[in-house]
Design a protein that fits this description.
By secondary structure, the protein is an alpha+beta fold. The protein folds into three domains: about 90 residues, Hepatocyte Growth Factor; about 140 residues, Helix Hairpins (Orthogonal Bundle), CATH 1.10.287.620; about 80 residues, 3-Layer(bba) Sandwich (Hepatocyte Growth Factor), CATH 3.50.4. Helices cover about 50% and strands about 20% of the residues. It is built from seven helices and twelve strands. The strands form two sheets. Strands 1-2-6-4-5-3 form a six-stranded antiparallel beta sheet. α3 runs antiparallel to α4 and α5 runs antiparallel to α6. It is rod-shaped, with a radius of gyration of 44 Å. The N and C termini lie far apart (about 90 Å).
Length: about 375
């Protein structure tokens, strides 16, 4: 027997599924009639306010109407029904609008042949009509009284109708089996689709091979860049040492003039060792697939054609390559630029590591070395 606290909670417990049911119902109806595809891939038809009366319907727990619809996945389950937040499974077949159905109810069935004229639909209607005639005949036969001529006539007519119904039922079953056999022999796909799929797979293999070659070139370029930077560091070290020797020589008396001359000669040789850098002031250009050097605004620059710095942001449009480099030279914290050759967009990079670059057409990167 329920205690007083439980009895007090019953109205609230009954109200929760009702509110949920109304919310789910309003989400689908009244415009939900029609065939839809559920997230699970199953196709279902919603019939708003048109539910068959089925005392034998089985209750199932479901939080949404879609979950309730997915329960009907067996051959003997014809439909599911959602009513006031509750889900039910039914074995009844929908044959048309139901009279007496209350609002707030949704009938969900996988039947798709309501208006179709194919053999499967004809078979289904013929079989259901046959079953109805059989039940009507059996009901009439049950109330028939022996010895009554009228009853005997009805009995004979009923037996004839029953035989006709059995013949029609057998014919309907033949059509059903024929339809099922045709359905089983139907295979998706065609030769043209398979050809396209094979071509796509071959193109993918070719693309993977080319990508591997490009990655090898990128790794080789990164290695060459590291060697170049190491050589630049060594050259700068030599230049600083040479300049220091020159300053020391100048501070000495005239008897060290010979040492000064020797140092000047060494300085000359040091500067010549850097002849690989561009000597023309402001000559910033890019030759496809090459590395070029230049001097601009007192800084030395290394141009890498076909490379982009990863994750560059805040680009400025309307500048050419040289103007982009000049804007970097005016910012003491700017270490490199990436230039979009197609869009004319300039990106400045204040932090840069050699591993931050990748190969990309139509992009050029210029490194600020001094």
């Amino acid at each position: 027997m329920l205690g007083p606290p439980i009895l007090l909670l019953l109205p609230f417990l009954a109200y929760v599924p009702y509110v949920m049911g109304d919310r789910e119902y309003d989400r689908i109806c009244p415009t939900g009639d029609g065939l839809v595809t559920l997230p699970s891939g199953n196709k279902i038809r919603y019939l708003c306010d048109d539910c068959l009366i089925d005392p034998a319907a089985q209750s199932r727990f479901a939080e949404t109407i879609e979950q309730c619809a997915d329960f009907c996945n067996t051959e003997d389950c014809k439909a599911t029904m959602w009513s006031s937040g509750n889900c039910f499974l039914s074995k009844l077949t929908y044959t048309g609008p139901s009279t007496g159905s209350t609002k707030g109810c949704i009938w969900m069935t996988s039947q798709t042949c309501f208006d179709s004229k194919d053999d499967c639909t004809t078979c289904l209607h013929d079989k259901e009509e046959c079953e109805r005639q059989k039940r009507k005949c059996e009901d009439a036969l049950a109330i028939c009284k022996p010895g009554d001529d009228e009853c005997e006539k009805k009995a004979r007519k009923c037996r004839n109708d029953l035989n006709t119904c059995e013949d029609e039922k057998n014919e309907a079953k033949k059509k059903e089996r024929k339809c099922q056999d045709a359905l089983a022999s139907c295979k998706p796909g065609d030769d043209e689709c398979e050809k396209k799929a094979r071509k796509c797979r071959n193109d993918l293999d070719t693309c993977e091979d080319e990508r591997s070659k490009v990655e090898k070139k990128e790794r080789r370029c990164q290695s060459d860049l590291l060697d170049c930077q190491d050589g630049r560091t060594e050259a700068e070290r030599k230049e600083r040492k040479c300049q220091g020797d020159l300053n020391d020589s100048r501070s000495k008396a005239g008897d060290l003039q010979q040492s000064v001359d020797q140092c000047a000669d060494a300085l000359d040789k040091c500067k010549k060792s850097e002849s690989s850098w561009g000597t023309t002031e402001g000559e910033i250009k890019c030759k496809s697939g090459s590395l070029t050097t230049a001097t601009l605004n007192g800084n030395k620059w290394l141009t890498l054609c076909g490379f982009i710095i990863n994750d560059v942001k805040g680009g400025v449009q309307g500048l050419n390559l040289k103007q982009c480099v000049e804007s970097c030279s005016q910012d003491d914290k700017c270490r490199a630029i990436t230039y979009d050759d197609h869009g004319g967009v300039c990106y400045l990079a204040r932090k840069f590591k050699t591993g931050d670059m990748r190969y990309s057409n139509y992009y050029h990167t210029v490194l600020r070395l001094t």
